[in-house]
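User: Before I run my own analysis I want an independent prediction to cross-check against. Here's the chain; please return only the C-alpha cells and, at the end, one sentence I can use as a sanity check.
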Amino acid sequence: MSSGQKARSLALLTPLALLGGAYISQYGSGLYPCEMCWWQRYAHFAALGFAALAFVMPRQSRVLTALAALAIAVSAAIGAFHAGVEYHWWQGFTECTSYAAKGGDPLDAIMNAPLIRCDAAQWTLLGISLAGFNFLFSAAGAVAIFAALARKAR
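Assistant: C-alpha cells:
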C-alpha cells in the first residue's frame, strides 16, 4: 500500500470510527451530545465527505485527502477547546443545550428533553472526557495523514 493510499484510508477511517463511537455512546449509552459535541461531529462529517471523494476522484485525491485531514484537525481543535471548558480552564461560548426526541407530541418532547451542559463531562475514563478523547484521536489521525501525504510528496 502506497503512502497516498494509507493517507486516504486513514482519512476515511478516522472520522468513521470517531463518529461511530459518538453514535454508539449516544444511542447505546444515553450520552446525548451538547452543542460543542455537535461542532466536533460536523467537522468529522466534512472529513468523511472529503475522504470519500478522494476515493472516487483519483486525480484530486491528494488535495481531498489533505482537506479531510484539515477537517479532522479542526475537530481536534474543537475537542481541545471543549475539554478545556469541561475542565473549567476557560469559559465556553455556550453553557448548555437540550436534546428533544423526534416523534410524539413536540411540546412534550421539548419539555422533557434532557439538558446537556457543555461545561460538564458526562463520562470520563482516567480523567479524560469524550471531548478529550476526540482531541487525542483526531489530532493523532490528522498528523498521521499529513505525514503520509508528506512521504509521498518526496
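Sanity check: The chain has a mean pLDDT of 84.
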